[in-house]
Amino acid sequence: MSLVAITGDHPRHHYFVKKLHQEGILTGWVREGREAFVPDAPQDIPKATRDLFVKHFKNRQIAEERFFGRPIAPDVSRLDTTPDNLNNRETVDFLKRISPRLVLSYGCHKIENALLDLPNLTFWNTHGGLSPSYRGVITHFWPSYNCEPQMTGLTLHETTSALDGGAIIHQSGAVLERGDGIHDLAARTVKAYCDELAPLIRDALNADCLPTGVTQKSSGRLWLSSHWRPEHLHLVYDTFHDRIVDKILDGSLSGRTPKLVSVLKKTFNPAVA
């Protein structure tokens, strides 16, 4: 049984693909070129905020390089594309040619019906947040900003027209380690998710058993790119000095406990479900 991954091109996306390839199930990769990993700082904001912006995204680059290493493309059939061309005929033809049993997306733009309507294909998407509480974008930032870094996580869900709203296949929660900043927390959590998910997907494909997900019981919160502003960084860095994880581990912050869902663990590793 075969799998095609559709991802972005940031270090975490390369690591995701690497783990799938190591399990011997990756037969194709559609790689979408994303925005610059370290964006230019806005010039129309105060200097102190601009300095935090530069620090924030440089710290993200450092964390991802440390956790995921240098991106190395696996030796599989690959189609490089752009956000504008992701759902075009070239991608349709690529999927038709490989004809995978499963298409896993992560970090790409929205997959449209031109792909979803292809026959005999199942589409699942990895979302970098715990749905339904953290749907949308920048969802590894908002849990820490909301003083609940333990709500950082990832959700694998059935791909539908509802943004991050499809039935849940698997969730993986935050890995909290003392001393971690916001980007360390995100990268460590993504790495643990990829390490755990890849063998579960292998087992599902080998058994020809792709389970149905658990329907999300609420619409939760949809976070939009317009919700984020550079001044949000002051709480993370000036108020908490990028040590919000330590506050949870010390017990000076508490907040919610995530309730994780996984039909993959229940099916293939029930002892830890």
Radius of gyration: 19 Å
| SS class | alpha/beta
Secondary-structure element series: EHEHEHEHEEHEEHEHHH
Number of helices: 9
Helix content: 25-40%
In round numbers, the mean pLDDT is 94
Count the E strands: 9
Q: How many strands, what sense, and barrel or not for the largest sheet?
A: 7 strands, mixed
Describe the structure.
With 273 residues, this protein is α/β, with parallel strands linked by helices. The protein has nine helices and nine strands. β1 (3-7), α1 (11-22) and β2 form a beta-alpha-beta unit.
Task: State the gist of this model.
The protein has 273 residues and is of the alpha/beta class.
Keywords:
9 helices; alpha/beta; 9 strands; seven-stranded mixed sheet; 36% helix; 273 residues
What is the fold's blueprint, element by element?
Blueprint: E1 3-7, H1 11-22, E2 26-32, H2 47-68, E3 77-81, H3 89-98, E4 102-106, H4 113-116, E5 122-127, E6 135-136, H5 142-145, E7 153-158, E8 168-173, H6 182-206, E9 222-223, H7 233-239, H8 244-250, H9 263-268
Helix pairs in contact: 1-6, 2-6
